[in-house]
UniProtKB/TrEMBL annotation:
Involved in peptide bond synthesis. Stimulates efficient translation and peptide-bond synthesis on native or reconstituted 70S ribosomes in vitro. Probably functions indirectly by altering the affinity of the ribosome for aminoacyl-tRNA, thus increasing their reactivity as acceptors for peptidyl transferase. Pathway: Protein biosynthesis; polypeptide chain elongation. This is Elongation factor P. It is found in: Cytoplasm. The gene is efp. Residues 72-126 form the Translation elongation factor P/YeiP central domain. GO terms for biological process: peptide biosynthetic process.
Length: 191
């Protein structure tokens, strides 16, 4: 039987299950009352892992959640087609398919062979977790304009191999690899 987690023990980045649905804790706030007999409340900002919906909900401190039957498996990205995006489980070597709603904006960072963590709930793939940074090749970059670059914070937009645009320093040229944050989509250095 799955272990039970008290609402007050839920921490940021924890997984828990409510009424058969897995959730991911984005943020948690505990409100302790000052009056005697008041109830300690826990406000959790959470993401439904099946629908990707994000919302806040308040629970009493003693409420209990099940630990979800959630498995995180390292998988490499193979390709995308009309059915969805396909990944190869690095442990069992089975092909896992995620549809577009499960992928979300992660498709902006997926390259063939990229290792990601696929989340499986009750044995079925439901979503994925990207690495913090990905290395992408610049496919189009305009030459940097000379002039006001004394501050060092002048940037230009370049297009990378997945098709997204990234703001980078002026010295980045076409063909170079850049490291991009998968959370913010921002340039993080040369690769």
């Amino acid at each position: 039987m799955a272990a039970l987690i008290d609402a007050i023990d839920v921490k940021r980045k924890d997984f828990f299950e409510i009424e058969g649905t897995p959730f991911y804790c984005l943020d948690v706030e505990v409100s302790t009352p000052t009056a005697r007999g008041g109830q300690t409340l826990v406000r959790i900002k959470m993401r439904n892992l099946l629908t990707q919906a994000v919302f806040d909900k308040t629970f009493k401190a003693g409420e209990k959640f099940k630990e979800p039957d959630l498995e995180v498996v390292p998988s490499s990205f193979l390709y995308s087609d009309g059915e969805g995006s396909h990944f190869l489980d690095q442990e069992s070597f089975e092909t896992l398919t995620l549809n577009e709603s499960m992928i979300g904006n992660a498709k902006d960072y997926l390259l063939e062979g990229l290792i990601v963590k696929v989340h499986k709930f009750n044995g079925n793939p439901i979503g994925l977790e990207l690495p913090q940074y990905v290395e992408l090749t610049v496919t189009y970059a305009e030459p940097g304009a000379k002039g006001n670059s004394a501050s060092g914070s002048v940037t230009k937009n370049v297009k990378v191999e997945t098709g997204i645009e990234v703001a980078v320093p002026l010295f980045i040229k076409e063909g170079e690899k850049v490291r991009v944050s998968t959370e913010t989509g921002e340039f993080n250095g040369r690769a």
